[in-house]
TrEMBL record:
Keywords of this entry: Cytoplasm, Hydrolase, Methyltransferase, RNA-binding, rRNA processing, S-adenosyl-L-methionine, Transferase
Protein name: Ribosomal RNA small subunit methyltransferase A
GO molecular function: 16S rRNA (adenine(1518)-N(6)/adenine(1519)-N(6))-dimethyltransferase activity; hydrolase activity; RNA binding
Source organism phylogeny: Bacteria, Pseudomonadati, Verrucomicrobiota, Verrucomicrobiia, Verrucomicrobiales
Entry-linked Pfam families: NUDIX (PF00293), RrnaAD (PF00398)
InterPro entries found in the cross-reference section: KsgA/Erm, NUDIX_hydrolase-like_dom_sf, NUDIX_hydrolase_CS, NUDIX_hydrolase_dom, rRNA_Ade_diMease-like_C, rRNA_Ade_Mease_Trfase_CS, rRNA_Ade_methylase_Trfase_N, rRNA_adenine_dimethylase
Family: Belongs to the class I-like SAM-binding methyltransferase superfamily. rRNA adenine N(6)-methyltransferase family. RsmA subfamily.
Region (Disordered), start-end ranges: 1-21
Stored HAMAP family: 16SrRNA_methyltr_A
Catalytic activity: adenosine(1518)/adenosine(1519) in 16S rRNA + 4 S-adenosyl-L-methionine = N(6)-dimethyladenosine(1518)/N(6)-dimethyladenosine(1519) in 16S rRNA + 4 S-adenosyl-L-homocysteine + 4 H(+)
Stretches with biased composition (Polar residues): 1-15
GO terms for cellular component: cytosol
Domain of life the protein comes from: Bacteria
């Protein structure tokens, strides 16, 4: 592509003897202002980044300002003319990959092995929301994102309580992401010119410690019900609250005539917790919980509290469970930030310490119920691991269970979870063992060697 006067570019190109123009059916408006394209590319800070993804690169207005700056650049283009052209254009570059696929359906699980995953895109108006939802809904490997979207959508993404555009989208996005409006872009930067302004937002993961834990499904259901008919009072939209509506609004410090847009994100979380009967402060793992202490032969020598066992590095017992589905994928959980060991690390489907006098098999069944909310009738012993630094001083049994989902993670225990193929996990573990709880890595190696 060549510039055509004052940083502008033509919106058409000749590809395989045919002129390619923006497709209305795909919501395409090509960015043709080169100075703006470069400015947007700079916002994702691509220099030296391990992995940058650009969904919908189109004619490559931003791509040209990304190539050669990150360690690896992935372009995802659905268009049947532009996709193959991009593949040809970058065929000789080892640092650029092109996927001729739909960005709303691409499998992102292989991205975890890169660690730092940055996504940037001038998203089509017609599917921008779907791309955002697909790539940013937890669990996700994405660590930061810069998107250009219709300004009205960006306003809604970034809006706080009391501001124009504040609604269900604002709350459902901001529970996981901090959203910053960077810049408004007028129609003249595109060809064809859209009828509305565009805007650029930057999104970074929200610190999970800034909100108390809550059940995500209950939260989303209540938010959608509350904003379903904005003019109606919430007492006419939400299900009966435990103890009645007045008890709920009293707990929130709000009037009985409350409407959805009057609650902040934090208050919506409080409301959801009220429906879940989570009325107290978050309770992490209890340091007073009793464990069996064992010797180097895994023989019980006494009982001490969790806090003392961990503080003194004493030998004790634990079980890990790999839940495997019909596709051969393994469910991994991301540990809650409330965990006293390896918070926010990826771990086995379920794992935990044996209660005093409890068997490994019984513990495996109990932990799968308590952590990921499934009932299994039995497990298969897959490996036994001796205690040491590699297991955090635990004698571990690894058990296998079969289940196809769904999972119902308990938020005090599990932040989120995902199914992974063994091949994806091998690649990720080899590249970034620091992303995982130490005991899981040891169990994984033991299982692979059986």
């Amino acid at each position: 592509m060549r510039s055509q006067g004052q940083g502008k570019r033509s919106s058409t190109r000749i590809i395989s003897g045919q002129e390619v123009a923006p497709r209305k059916s795909m919501g395409q408006n090509f960015l043709v202002d080169d100075s703006i394209a470069k400015w947007i590319a700079d916002q994702i800070e691509p220099d030296g980044a391990p992995f940058v993804v650009e969904p919908g690169p189109g004619l490559g207005a931003m791509t040209q300002h990304l190539v050669g700056r990150s360690q690896q650049l992935l372009l995802i283009e659905k268009d049947h003319s532009l996709g193959p052209e991009l593949q040809k254009r970058f065929a000789t570059r080892e640092d650029v990959m092109v996927m001729h696929e739909d960005a709303t359906k691409v499998d992102t699980r292989g991205w975890y092995r890169h660690g730092d995953v940055r996504v940037i895109g001038n998203l089509p108006y017609s599917v921008g929301g779907e791309i955002l939802k697909h790539m940013l809904t937890p669990p996700t490997p994405v660590t930061s994102a810069v998107f250009m979207l219709q300004k009205e959508v960006c306003d809604r993404l970034a809006a706080k309580v009391g501001q124009d555009g504040y609604g269900a989208l604002s709350i459902l996005v901001q529970r996981d992401w901090d959203v910053e409006m960077l810049r408004v872009i007028g129609p003249e930067a595109f060809n064809p010119k859209p009828r509305v302004d565009s805007a650029i937002v930057k999104m970074t993961p929200r610190d999970p410690r800034t909100l108390p834990v809550y059940d995500r499904r209950t939260f989303e259901r209540l938010v959608r019900l509350g904003f379903g008919q904005r003019r109606k009072q919430m007492k006419n939209l939400l299900p009966e609250a435990p103890g009645g509506w007045q008890a709920l609004v009293d707990a929130l410090g709000k009037p009985a005539t409350l409407r959805a847009e009057e609650l902040s994100l934090e208050e919506w979380v409080q409301l959801s917790r009220f429906y879940e009967n989570r009325t107290g402060a978050d309770a992490g793992q209890k340091a007073t919980e009793m464990f069996d202490v064992v010797n180097e032969r895994n023989e019980v020598t006494g009982q001490l509290t969790r806090g003392e066992v961990h503080a003194r590095g004493l030998l004790h017992r634990a079980v890990h469970v790999f839940v495997i589905n019909a596709r051969g994928e393994i469910y991994l959980q991301k540990r809650s930030h409330l965990k006293d060991v390896s918070p926010l690390k990826w771990d086995s489907s379920a794992a935990g310490h044996l209660d005093v006098g409890e068997s490994y098999a019984a513990c495996a069944i109990r932990e799968t119920r308590e952590e990921v909310g499934i009932e299994i009738s039995g497990t298969e012993l897959a490996a036994e691991l001796s205690a040491g630094e590699h297991t955090d001083h635990e004698f571990v049994e690894l058990h296998l269970a079969r289940h196809n989902g769904p999972m119902k993670p308990f938020p005090e225990e599990v932040a989120c979870g995902e199914w992974f193929s063994p091949e994806t996990l091998d690649s990720w573990i080899n590249a970034r063992p620091q992303d995982f709880a130490k005991g899981f890595v040891s169990c994984w190696k033991a299982w692979k060697n059986t």
